[in-house]
Amino acid sequence: MFNLLSMTFTKTSFSPWLWALALVFLITACISQPISYQRYDLTTLNETVEAAPATYSSSANYDNDAYLPDTLHPEYTPRRGVMINIHIMNTQDTFYKIYEGEAGTQYMKNLVATANQALQTNKKSTLMPTGMDVPVYPFNFKIYLAKKPGTNEAAIYRHYDDELYPFIFRGPKRNLGDRKVLNKYGVNLDTELNIFVMPPHVDSLDSKTFRPNEGTGVFLGKGIKLSGLYPEKFAPWRHQGNLLHEIGHALGLNHAWRNDGCDDTREHSNNCWSKDQSARCDTMTSNNLMDYSAKQHVLTPCQIGRIHARFGNLKSRSRDWLRRDWCKPARDEKEITIAANISWAGARDLNTHIRIKTGGRLYIDNRLHLARGRKITVEPGGILELGPKAWLHNDCEENWAGIDTGNNGREYGEVIIDPLARVENTEL
Ligand SMILES: [Zn+2]
Question: Could you tell me what percent of the chain has a pLDDT over 70?
Fold first, then answer.
């Protein structure tokens, strides 16, 4: 058999000088010249963009799957923060003393804290569609209690109003869908999700049908009305499911036991509150946040994707409630690195630099916000590709830096831009 190695070494006619020359050549090839970087010229692209109609958002990809948190690279999908404020309603003579003072304030803060604790760990669904093994993804969002405007004080407001204080669930005076309390007392309705804690009507406390453990709520477009927070009976965590369920509605989720538009939640009769209720309930009790049960906690990938798709949609109300973390640039040394073949189909808001390493490829086919002064660096041998639905921009009325491409004399950082892609708000 032909053996190249033994042949090369036995060939005596090959001069030592030629060997040395070959060695020098090899070394030069290995120690490449230093990498120089150059700003990619986007001027011609921006000219065509200005002429093009702004039809972007209608064609954007809002498939839930495209918005699932990237569990291998959590930094590609930064955690979102929903801003809320809390209004505690009471009678003019402060009948409900339990909501008053530091204790009442602390109770509400603890409720927010336990809700965030619940949002830290998602679990396996107990009710899955037949034959489906539903994976577990992180929620990837939390809630923040806002500050009162112009202060450092938690946004917990108290209102003493004999007409609007109660939450009346049933009967002729039922006020479930009434928005008066929101319209009168709402604060920053466009940027914070207003949550009204409303006690039962004083008169209903004497009624035989009144049940003090009745935890219920309703989402009304710009705010949530919650009833049944009984600090004297229940620790804050007992109400966290109720609060998060209504926040789930606010963020775009339907009841999971019905046809909710998600094929990874199971339709069911929703009449098992807990496992030990009956033999049937042993296997038919749901733990989905959007069902009614003692264990309402879990969200499926479709539900999580739906929430995050709305967070990414510039026209969505959910996005208005977000803490705009993406506007504040991260520390300069912070960057996201792309070292493999990565595709971003969902919209994203990033506040760090992006570096596409040699051998890495990043394909973007949706909106991508980059914070002030942040840039995309494409190392030699790396590829940045913008698809037809790509839109690189800054959502905070500032400029991001642009795209730098590297060159080491042998390889270049490659940028491929579809004619329909848009790149805006870059430094000139
Ligand atoms: Zn509901």
Answer: 89
CB-based burial label for 294 (10 Å; 0-12, 13-18, 19+): middle
Q: Could you identify the residue written with the tokens 């660096």?
A: 377
What's the CA-to-centroid distance between 213 and ligand 1, angstroms?
Answer: 17
Cα(246) to centroid(ligand 1), Å: 6
Angle between helices 101-118 and 237-250 (to 10 degrees): 70
Q: What is the DSSP letter of 254?
A: P
Ligand 1 mean position, distance from CA 163 (Å)? 25
- The residue written with tokens 């948190």 in the block is 69
Q: How many angstroms is it from 253 CA to the middle of ligand 1?
A: 9
Q: Are strands 335-338 and 353-356 parallel, antiparallel or unpaired?
A: parallel
- Report the SS3 class of residue 58: helix
Structure tokens at 131: 């034959």
Which pLDDT band, with edges at 50, 70 and 90, does 8 fall under? Answer: very low
Q: How confident is the model at residue 112, as a pLDDT? A: 97
Overall average pLDDT of the 17-23 stretch: 73
Q: How far is the CA of 70 from the centre of ligand 1 (A)?
A: 28
What does the pLDDT look like over 47-89, one tens digit per residue? 555 544 444 444 455 688 899 999 999 999 999 999 999 999 9
The radius of gyration of the chain's CA atoms, rounded to the nearest angstrom, is 29
pLDDT of residue 263: 93
Count Cβ atoms below 10 Å from residue 151 Cβ, excluding itself: 8
Domains contained in the chain, CATH given: 36-62+326-423 (no CATH), 65-312 (3.40.390)
Distance (angstroms) between ligand 1 centre and the Cα of 321 equals: 20
pLDDT surpassing 80 at residue 150: yes
- The yes-or-no verdict on residue 265 having pLDDT over 90 is yes
Residue range 209-228, pLDDT digits in tens: 766 655 789 999 999 999 87
The Å distance, Cα 377 to ligand 1 centre, comes to 46
- Which distant-in-sequence residues (6+ apart) come within 8 Å of 115 by Cβ? 143, 240, 243, 244, 247
Dist. CA 255 → ligand 1 center (Å)? 6
CA angle, corner 198, sides to 193 and 201, nearest 5?
Answer: 160
Half-sphere exposure of 349 (CA within 13 A, CB side): 22
Count of CB atoms situated within 10 Å of the CB of 418? 13
